[in-house]
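User: Could you go from structure to sequence for me? I need the amino acid at each position, not a summary. Structure tokens:
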């Protein structure tokens, strides 16, 4: 009877460890837009500006501060946290919405995110859109189902009222993706 109790305790501890490990892995391995810039603070519901570089204080003594009075200020960029928020943001900013459908199990999706979507020219072209990435197996999979997405990577440009303007499927390198965007 004692051996049975010890076995049950070991099984419960192993299950707890497995559940915790899966939760931690999922938390640390989200796939979406390449995270060159910081994301929103997950503990705070308010939007946080991104793309504002933090200045180093190391060289402040040796170099005088540069004047920024005549330099144009970059507008604050907000990253939508949900599909609905992305639609609302596209409407309010009068921009089109670029939806990127992906899957964490898709090697071509990861390759396109790493190589193509991370390219400075592509980023510049995508800055004219509200960008939102959707995992077809994630919480917002209903969007992919409603759009009848069968393959990934899949990308489309639509209005804030969900009218599709352009769509594409499959891995595209930098040049072919730029040509597709223009």
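Assistant: Here is the amino acid at each position, in order:
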């Amino acid at each position: 009877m004692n051996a049975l109790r010890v076995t049950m305790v070991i099984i419960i501890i192993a299950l707890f460890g497995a559940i915790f490990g899966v939760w931690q892995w999922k938390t640390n391995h989200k796939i979406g837009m390449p995270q060159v810039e910081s994301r929103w603070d997950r503990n705070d519901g308010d939007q946080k500006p991104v793309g504002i570089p933090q200045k180093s204080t190391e060289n402040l003594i040796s170099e005088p501060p540069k004047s920024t009075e005549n330099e144009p200020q970059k507008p604050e960029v907000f990253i939508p946290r949900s599909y609905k928020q992305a639609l609302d943001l596209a409407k309010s900013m009068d921009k089109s919405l670029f939806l990127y459908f992906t899957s964490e199990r898709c090697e071509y999706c990861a390759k396109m995110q790493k190589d193509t979507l991370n390219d400075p020219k592509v980023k510049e072209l995508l800055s004219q859109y509200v960008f939102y990435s959707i995992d077809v197996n994630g919480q917002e999979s209903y969007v992919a189902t409603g759009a009848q997405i069968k393959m990934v990577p899949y990308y489309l440009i639509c209005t804030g009222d969900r009218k599709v303007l352009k769509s594409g499927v499959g891995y595209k390198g930098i040049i072919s993706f730029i040509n597709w965007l223009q």
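One structural detail worth keeping in mind: The longest strand covers residues 96-102.
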